[in-house]
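Quick one:
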Amino acid sequence: MKLAISFIVAAGLGLTGTVFADNYAALVARGYRWVIVHGPYACTSEEGVRRITAHSTDETELQMVQAQQAYYLIPGTIAQILKEDPAVGMSQIHLGGLTTPLWTYTRFLSRHPIRDIYGMIETPENSGLVSSMAPFPTLTDQSTAPTLPNGNP
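Output:
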């Protein structure tokens, strides 16, 4: 009996690993990547990325971060690629919580899931890239809206 239970548990765990791998492969196919560097390597322009990586000094980094031209990338953060420029090796990305698209070197992004600082693998749903909440229902026809005793909906 113990052998049968052990076999079932082992088979279940093996299938779970395959399911997770398939989900990550689907995310990669939809343009998602995981950050592998730590530092201010995402900028609002391609020139900003060149500037901060080529001649990076503490003063340059501070100026660009304060001017909101550079943003810190943290390993394990998931990013969605919006546009790629293979000629220069850069990608325009979208990060959860930011409305501004940013540029970074494509080599700073991985097609393989990377654990974040909490040991978790980010997905679009848990990173803020995709809302997991259903939209609120809206009333389109006021004639079917419930009314209060004073006649107001």
